[in-house]
Design goal:
The chain is α/β, with parallel strands linked by helices. Helices cover 30% and strands 23% of the residues. An eight-stranded mixed sheet has the order 6-7-8-3-9-10-12-11, sandwiched between helices. It has a four-stranded antiparallel sheet with strand order 2-1-4-5. Strand 4 (74-79) and strand 5 form a beta hairpin. Helix 3 crosses helix 4 and helix 4 (132-145) crosses helix 5 (162-174). The longest helix has 18 residues, at 192-209. The model has no long low-confidence stretch (mean pLDDT 91).
Length: 324
């Protein structure tokens, strides 16, 4: 059953391949690393959608294509119904104000030679012509919203803690009031005690400023806490997509089940069955024919030599598997 709302972002059969050097100096065949492989996904206004999977599954590459940083090899990415890679320079510049990102590492993301006020306000200088007073007012306003003392506008990044630096990154991303915020592992570099503060801040700002969040993580507990919908990726493909409660209560794909079984339960009396996947993740340069997961799957059969389609098993619960 399709969602009746109009998607703000539509990802249609998107693939991203990177050329790699062939190991044989005599071979004329060109190899490609298939980072993202035929992904289709709808992101609706007001959603907090999570993209989860192991490192190297294509989460960040998919985000970069949505941000207009890497062009898809195949497929389309539509923003409000318009292909973002068909836009001219003027329209692309406006798109930058609509879709912003919070990076993973708040330490390397901030220029140590710039004051935080200049870092946060830089997007304003690029996109708008403001008076000095209006510029300072907007910077201090967003600083207050994210929990940074506006009086610290002239301090440098090294004068702030890791959690405060990530708040600065969030302020920089939101100062243009975007419609979509891409969060690429925004709490993985932070202390556990600070993570919940940042997640709660993002949730509160989302309600207050009315934007959509695409949240990328490999931490399933974080994804469960903040996301309303979740897409599970494996080797560049989406293998399961569902609402947060559906996915955690009734996972269908064997890869999703294995991921969820690895979540630690803070109860010494709880006994859970850990699902251990056999074998290694296949090479994205030379993935298996048919289902990419078949060599590690307990349900594999002859059907798995054909690529499974992402089909709806129950309302808004999509799975790509022939046998489960």
């Amino acid at each position: 059953m399709e969602n009746s709302r109009q998607p703000i972002i539509q990802i249609k059969g998107v693939s991203r391949y990177f050329p790699v050097k062939n190991s044989s100096m005599f071979s004329r065949k060109k190899d490609f690393l298939k980072a993202v492989n035929d992904v289709s996904l709808n992101i609706y206004p007001g959603d907090t959608i999570g993209i989860v999977g192991e490192s190297g599954c294509g989460k960040t590459t998919l985000a970069k294509m949505i941000l207009h940083l890497q062009k898809p090899t195949k497929g389309q990415i539509l923003y409000n119904g318009v292909d973002i890679y068909s836009l001219g320079k003027k329209e692309t510049k406006k798109l930058r104000t609509e879709i912003q990102i919070v990076f993973q590492d708040p330490f390397s993301s901030l220029n140590p030679r710039m004051r935080v006020g200049d870092i946060i306000g830089e997007p304003l200088k690029i996109h708008y012509k403001l008076s000095k007073d209006e510029y300072v007012r907007k910077v201090q306003d967003i600083m207050a919203r994210v929990g940074i003392n506006p009086k610290h506008i002239n301090r440098y990044p090294h004068e702030f803690s890791g959690g405060q630096r990530q708040r600065i990154m969030i302020a920089k991303a939101l100062i243009l009031r975007p419609k979509v915020l891409v969060c690429d592992e925004p709490v993985s570099a932070l202390d556990v005690s600070i993570r919940s503060e940042i997640l709660n801040l993002l949730s509160d700002l989302k309600k207050e400023m009315e934007f959509t969040i695409l949240f990328i993580s490999h931490d399933l507990t974080v994804i469960e806490y903040i996301c309303s919908r979740i897409a599970v990726m494996y080797l560049g493909k989406v293998v399961e997509s569902a609402g947060e409660s559906q996915l955690y209560k009734d996972p269908i794909h064997p890869y999703t089940k294995a991921l969820l079984s690895a979540i630690p339960i803070p109860n010494p009396h709880h006994k859970s069955t850990r699902i251990i996947l056999e074998g290694d993740v296949p090479s994205p340069i030379n993935p298996p024919i048919g289902c990419f997961f078949k060599n590690r799957c307990i349900y594999k059969s002859e059907k798995c030599n054909e690529p499974p389609k992402l089909v709806e098993r129950s309302e808004n619960h999509f799975v790509a598997c022939h046998n489960c």
